[in-house]
Amino acid sequence: MDRTQPSKTWSLRDMIPKNHPRRESLLLREKLVEALENNILVPQGLIAHGRGECFDYLLGEKTQYFADDAEKVAAAMLLIAKNPVISVNGNMAALVPESIVKLSEVTNSKIEVNLFYRDEKRIDAISDVLIKNGAKNVLTEGNAVIPELFSERRRVNKEGIFSADVVLLAMEDGDRTEALIKMNKKVIAIDLNPLSRTSLTATITIIDNVIRAIPNIINYAMVLKKENPDELNYIISQYNNKKIISESMKFLSDRLAQLSKDL
Ligand code: ATP
């Protein structure tokens, strides 16, 4: 990429009219294209984003109540964890690097770069973005393995995901989520698709866009930090993930039914 040229995101920011109905969504696409050019993302990441966009469209591009509930409980779970880890991939680093760092600070979570398509250069590029956004320590070395996974995805960090009790991940593949659950970890998954294997296997499923979900978890964590562990455990004990997923599916079908009536 020619770094002497002005960032495309900024030129596009000027080109897309302020009142364009898809302005935010178009700017996000540009962030991802820029991340692709900077070796933070692979082309497959763009396709994964497209699948998410479709669900976000159906969700009204808002944090709905079922996501808000799950985000509050996610904050409580991260705060009470002994070794919470935020697993970062290319899409997350492209979209929300600053929020990842802030969440790790507020909840005292470690940050680990873990990629579906593992590549040392890309790991370094993602780690650099996080450090530029204020991260003090980013785990990158894959010095332990997740049992039952047979690809590069199984390489994780001993002090990070391997020994974590709670792992927050987003836009993740179902096999790895299942493997983490089999290792008795609690998994908080941010995934716009309530039907994905990740959504269906996670401990807490946040059906929301990562760009809204992480800032909302941060807000909850800042409030809940003042509560004692009993209160946090109580919040977690009242949570029913199946109910949350089912409410999200009902919301999608009710919304489509209503929209079809309004035509
Ligand atoms: P699984 O293996 O769990 O069934 P999948 O094959 O659908 O999942 P991937 O393509 O590996 O999943 O991951 C992409 C997932 O991330 C999709 O479910 C997509 O809806 C979701 N996604 C994409 N962009 C975002 C975003 N910005 N915020 C939250 N989720 C997103």
From TrEMBL:
Residues annotated to bind ATP: 29, 51, 191-193, 197-198, 209-210
Recorded metabolic or biological pathway in which this protein acts: Cofactor biosynthesis; coenzyme A biosynthesis
Pfam families: PPS_PS
Keyword terms, alphabetized: ATP-binding, Coenzyme A biosynthesis, Ligase, Nucleotide-binding
Keyword Heme: no
Catalytic reaction(s) noted: (R)-4-phosphopantoate + beta-alanine + ATP = (R)-4'-phosphopantothenate + AMP + diphosphate + H(+)
InterPro entries: PPS/PS, PPS/PS_sf
Similarity field: Belongs to the archaeal phosphopantothenate synthetase family.
Protein name per the record: 4-phosphopantoate--beta-alanine ligase
Organism of this sequence: Acidianus brierleyi
